């Protein structure tokens, strides 16, 4: 069998700061389009790859976590959408479209097929949206945005009509959907983001009631007070750090904080402390961390509801698509400087 070109992105070595393009290496190798003897699985052609904050957690030398680190020198692994080229696993056929953990390369041999999900194609929903809007994973460590927003908002935040909701990293893959779900639920919603362009999108495209640029607010607690003079009922926290600290000061009695992610802390060797935790007591605030895969039983319901809302044009979903595998390292690094506007996707091949 003739070997074909296989472009790849390798992880160079463990890091202690925010990821940089140079922490990964692009190379052109080869692949044989057949399953090697002795292996069971599927050989896939990768079409779209997802850039997610959790990949940073796999770049540190820390083994005592639910998520193992990458091996230096190996191909970066992340969530993707792929076409099955060859299979000796009876659960799949050549031509199937699947989503699941795959390599940052053109062709990947996947042996853990129990982690793959077959995609039911719907021509009204772009295929790449299965990484963002409709994204879910059966793995703890593949955290996908759409289902995260859905489970986090409805299950952790216990929202009620008319409540005041604050969302950070609001223009990102998770945040844009949380805000729209909250609006559909009848809530007042304000988002924070790091550029004027994102603030405009939040107000004009995603339908938030208001939004502000946290980078232009030296007094974050004061800014929140301006947007929530009567306090916040629900804070959907994607960033942690100073924003969480300021939100704690602005919560209402019996408010809820969904601790979804703390991207501001991902790249710090020593995490910042939170000073205002004492507010949990007089305000009787419930603060709860969650992982989307805790709620897998809700996934079929989520697919139907969010798919319908999208097709009925009651929600929108924005992607930031980068062309070619070569763009993947810079695209991942961009998540940590806020360069993405919406869900970060790398298109390896459109077919
Ligand atoms: N619990 C779960 O199951 C689960 C699942 C998926 C994701 N997550 C978490 O959810 C959060 C959002 O993920 P996502 O996929 O939607 O990412 P994203 O929001 O699309 O991208 C990350 C954004 O975070 C903001 N950011 C980066 N560094 C920051 C900092 N130091 N301080 C404040 N904001 C910063 C940037 O936007 P700005 O321009 O606004 O700065 C950046 O665009 C992450 O914390 C992630 O780890 C959790």
TrEMBL record:
It comes from the Eukaryota. One of its GO terms (molecular function) is oxidoreductase activity, acting on the CH-CH group of donors, NAD or NADP as acceptor. Residues 42-346 form the Enoyl reductase (ER) domain. Keywords: Oxidoreductase. InterPro entries: ADH-like_C, ADH_N_2, ER, GroES-like_sf, MDR_fam, NAD(P)-bd_dom_sf. Homodimer. This is Enoyl reductase (ER) domain-containing protein. It comes from Spirodela intermedia.
């Amino acid at each position: 069998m003739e070997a074909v070109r296989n472009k790849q992105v390798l992880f160079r070595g463990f890091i202690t700061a925010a990821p940089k393009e140079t922490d990964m290496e692009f190379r052109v190798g080869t692949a044989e389009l057949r399953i090697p003897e002795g292996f069971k699985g599927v050989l896939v052609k990768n079409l779209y790859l997802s850039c997610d904050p959790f990949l940073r957690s796999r770049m540190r030398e820390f083994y005592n976590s639910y998520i193992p680190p990458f091996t230096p020198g190996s191909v970066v692994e992340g969530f993707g959408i792929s076409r099955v080229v060859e299979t000796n696993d009876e659960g799949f056929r050549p031509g199937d479209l699947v989503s699941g953990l795959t390599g940052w390369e053109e062709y990947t041999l996947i042996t853990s097929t129990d982690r793959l999900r077959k995609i039911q194609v719907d021509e009204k929903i772009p295929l790449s949206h299965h990484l963002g809007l409709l994204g879910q994973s059966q793995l703890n460590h593949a955290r996908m945005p759409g289902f995260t927003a859905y489970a986090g908002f409805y299950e952790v935040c216990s929202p009620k009509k008319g409540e005041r909701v604050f969302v950070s990293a609001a223009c990102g893959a998770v945040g844009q959907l949380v805000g729209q779900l909250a609006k559909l639920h009848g809530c007042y919603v304000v988002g924070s983001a790091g550029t004027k362009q994102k603030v405009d999108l939040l107000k004009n495209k995603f339908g938030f009631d208001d939004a502000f640029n946290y980078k232009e607010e030296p007094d974050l607690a004061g800014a929140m007070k301006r947007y929530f003079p009567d306090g916040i009922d629900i804070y959907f926290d994607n960033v942690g750090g100073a924003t969480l600290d300021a939100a704690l000061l602005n919560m209402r009695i019996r408010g809820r904080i969904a601790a979804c992610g703390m991207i501001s802390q991902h790249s710090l060797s020593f995490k910042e402390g939170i000073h205002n935790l004492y507010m949990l007591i007089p305000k009787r605030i419930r603060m709860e961390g969650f992982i989307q895969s805790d709620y897998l039983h809700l996934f079929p319901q989520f697919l139907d509801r969010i798919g319908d809302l999208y097709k009925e044009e009651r929600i929108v979903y924005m992607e930031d698509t980068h062309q070619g595998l070569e763009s993947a390292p810079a695209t991942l690094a961009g998540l940590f400087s806020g360069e993405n506007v919406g869900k970060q996707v790398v298109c390896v091949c459109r077919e």
